[in-house]
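Objective 1.3, modelling of assemblies. Example input:
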Amino acid sequence: MTSFSSVVIESQEAARLILRGDLDAASVRAADDALRELLGRDLDRVVLDLTELDFIDSMGVKLLVDGRDTARERGVEIALAYEEGVVERVLEVSGVASLFDRQGD
Amino acid sequence: MTTARWTFDATRVAPGKGRQVIREFALPAEPTEHALGSIAVCVSEAMTNVVVHAYRDMDPPGQIDMEAELDGDSLTIRVRDQGHGLEPRIDSEGLGLGLPLISKFSAASEIASSDDGGTEIVMRFDLREEGDARG
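Predicted structure (tokens):
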């Protein structure tokens, strides 16, 4: 179990939200706050960077789906970045990976 | 055969604690990283299910019992509550993905209701599981 944190790296009209640690029931509210704040800005594109995430479960998956819906409503392009491992497996098995563009593809 | 048992308060930090103790329990058997990932997902989903569903509207929340049995390359985990079980709720926090993920990430799983109204989820894992074996 690793603690959760997030950081935003922003450039002109684009931002990367880096999620670190474990994304589960304990941390999903903090992640949701960070994502909602970011989607409230006037951005064209947001990348949810999961490459430093050690773990994700269905609570985190729901956050991603909700974030995608909110981004669409606001006309923000949203993409995921992730690497091989348990995070990728959860995204693939849950079917959520197919809902997003993957940065780097 | 090695066994262990833990009890957690059914709060939002419980799934993380559950993942941690089961990893420490399994590590001496030298599981693959793939198996450790599968175990973490299933324990988290089973315990989150209890936190979100089993003790809703109960203050303070109840407890989660978890038992593990290590037998060679096989690990069996039981997660049990004494709450409302798996009754559906329209205001669920999740996407209904918990049980499907358990089914995909475990070698076998079974869900049973207990006489006291709670639920027990039994999950079995192959500690030598490699990538692409399941999920």
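Chain B has one domain: 2-126.
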